[in-house]
Amino acid sequence: MLPKPLDSPYTSCYCEENIYFLVHRFLEQAQVKATWDIFAVIVSNVTKTVALWSQLKAPAANTAVIWDYHAVLVLRSRSESHRGLLNTTLSIEEETWIYDFDSILEMPSRWEEYVEKTFPPDSDIPPQYRSLFRVISGEEYLRSFASDRSHMLSPAADSSNEYISPPPLYPIVCGPLAAAHGFTNNLMTHFVSMESSKGYGTVMDRETFVSWCSQA
């Protein structure tokens, strides 16, 4: 059975924190950990202009939203019985599923539907809008993530600290490893950046991400 994101905190425009807490909820559940590998995936590119379709904030149907970055959670089957098999009907527990709080698609969605309806083939979009995917294990994401939310401060803000979008009411997030390293904010440098050598996880293009989701 697929885990549901029940009671997981959600704040509009803070996708990275929404996914942080969803990862935390799933890692707390022994059955989920036994069945699935849990990943956070940050979507961005070197220009921080990625085009995503099927988003709730799209101005109209069949229209893309241009994000500087986005974050989703991926559940990837731990079963190896189906890997390398073609034209095989898979059970729920043998598939890869994607959770996106900001999508109009069902949550979770089968990875094939989500990728097809959210990320058209690179050949169909201008290079500056093509997505790259930084895939980080759930455990590493919880340990290493830190954000002081300064990236959400309005450029015109003064000492009043006016935010572009209201921040979550809970305290800022800082994982134990990030804190041990003295980080209070590594979101943009270690997760969103797709060209930083010091980032966490693995950066993939669309083709590689599709192969990874399919566990080919």
From TrEMBL:
One of its GO terms (molecular function) is protein-N-terminal glutamine amidohydrolase activity. Its EC number is 3.5.1.122. Keywords: Hydrolase. It catalyses: N-terminal L-glutaminyl-[protein] + H2O = N-terminal L-glutamyl-[protein] + NH4(+). Gene3D superfamilies: Protein N-terminal glutamine amidohydrolase, alpha beta roll. One of its GO terms (cellular component) is nucleus. The keyword Hydrolase applies. Residues 10-211 form the Protein N-terminal glutamine amidohydrolase alpha beta roll domain. InterPro entries: N_Gln_amidohydro_ab_roll_sf, NTAQ1, Prot_N_Gln_amidohydro_ab_roll. It comes from the Eukaryota. The keyword Hydrolase applies. Belongs to the NTAQ1 family. Mediates the side-chain deamidation of N-terminal glutamine residues to glutamate, an important step in N-end rule pathway of protein degradation. Conversion of the resulting N-terminal glutamine to glutamate renders the protein susceptible to arginylation, polyubiquitination and degradation as specified by the N-end rule. Does not act on substrates with internal or C-terminal glutamine and does not act on non-glutamine residues in any position. Monomer. PANTHER family: PROTEIN N-TERMINAL GLUTAMINE AMIDOHYDROLASE. This is Protein N-terminal glutamine amidohydrolase. It comes from Suillus plorans.
